Amino acid sequence: MQEAKKLHAHIIINGFQQQETYYLRKLITFLTISNPSSLNYARLIFDQIQHKSAFIYNTMIRAYSSSCNPQNSFVLYDQMHRNGRPSVDKYTFPFLLKACSVLGDIRKGEESHCQVVKNGFGSNVFVQNSLIHFYGSNAKISSARLVFDEMLERDVATWTTLVSCYSNHGSIETASKLFKEMPEKTVVSFSAMITGCVRKGRFNEALEFFRELQIRGLEPNDSAVMGVISASANLGSLDTGKWIHSYIRNKKGNRFDSYMNTALIDMYFKCGSIKDAIHVFQGVKVKLVGEWTAVISGMAMHGFGERSVELFENMVELGVKPNAITFVGLLSGCTHAGLVKEGLTYFKRMKSEFGIEPTIEHFGCVVDFLSRAGLIAQAVTFMNNMPLKANAAIWGAVLNACRVHKDVEVGEVAARWLLREEPWNAAVYMSLLSLYTEADRWDDVVMVKREMKEIGSRKSPGCSLVEVNGVVYEFVAGDKSYPPALQVSLQIDESIKEVKEDYGNLWD
């Protein structure tokens, strides 16, 4: 910035402040991309130029579209449009549409679309791609598809943008179909499918797309890598998680950013490898709130609530400010460790000391640890005084605690609330059955079973995930359609069954 200001001084001394020159263009371009605070300085220079070109206008519109004040892009566009000079060009509208996407302003985006057509840029690929992105980012999938279908010429960015629209906001099946039709696939299109599958909970499919990316010899970008880490975490696929960790370590050394470190710590905890999670955490030289939050939440997940509390205090002592997610992990740790007093203290400190407003997740944690400790009346009082309405997760925590502590009265209230909201939820019926059975209220047991039969509710079959050679297989109770790779285990089961039938006495 110091050198830029010196250059600006030379421009003023030489009398070029009010006319656009090559040096002035370069200076404004530098100022708009260097840092957010220099944008105002760029605007002061811009305003002093008497005869501005479309390039200078576009540079400023682009800068504002990525800033905290994207609405200023429209102010400059209106100025261009009102003066009639300079004329807009094919670069103006993509930046303007980006501002619409950031603001989520559908009306302005549609108005910009009209201006695109009016100014003769309706068949420009660059502009059309921006229109697809605008409509897709605002979940207007049908409009995005209409622009795509009307295009006479499409490039790889066109296909990738539409695939991203469907994978993020529409149908993953349609996205997959479009992906297969793409004449050319890039790492960006693979990344769109991977992140889309993860967002939709299709974790196995995300790993399949990643394997295909590798087979094609493409190097995954950070987005694809983060998607695979997330998929591995949700599937509990430790082998795949370790492989991707090794892969990115070979590519980047140990120079991971905070997001990558946080994702890896979270993945190892969810895969059950506490040792690997701690190893990643300890290897981070400068630990930010993301890494601390991941390890606090991970220890809580595995029942080490006291350790979560210790880590939290260490974090605060080192001057790292916790965020709302940190407190969800901390309060969850208090829940699993039965630390009621500590949990209430941290809940109060959250707002008084750190200025964090509690969300429904934090209130839910408090209700959960009070209920688990058998303080059900206190939990209900806390719920009634909450500024937010209790959701299904909170009522579910109360119901589970009532089943354990045999509080039929409150349990009935919780179950009936849940059944009003989720009448199809068989798990609620099963909890209610257990509650009545423990209380020897057999007439109520019969009544609940009758209700389940009338609405066709039945308990969902249990399922298990098994990882074999890096591939995760799902087993559902009663399902015989297992993958060929696991047929051997079925044959062994059949053999054992035959032995039992033929040599039952010896077996016993």
UniProtKB/TrEMBL annotation:
GO molecular function: RNA binding
Keyword rRNA-binding (UniProt): no
GO process terms (BP): RNA modification
PROSITE patterns registered for this protein in UniProt: PPR
Residue ranges of PPR repeats: 53-87, 155-185, 186-220, 288-322, 425-459
UniProt keywords, alphabetically: Repeat
PANTHER family, A to Z: PENTACOTRIPEPTIDE-REPEAT REGION OF PRORP DOMAIN-CONTAINING PROTEIN, PENTATRICOPEPTIDE REPEAT-CONTAINING PROTEIN
Protein name in UniProt: Pentatricopeptide repeat-containing protein
Source organism (scientific name): Papaver nudicaule (Iceland poppy)
Organism classification: Eukaryota, Viridiplantae, Streptophyta, Embryophyta, Tracheophyta
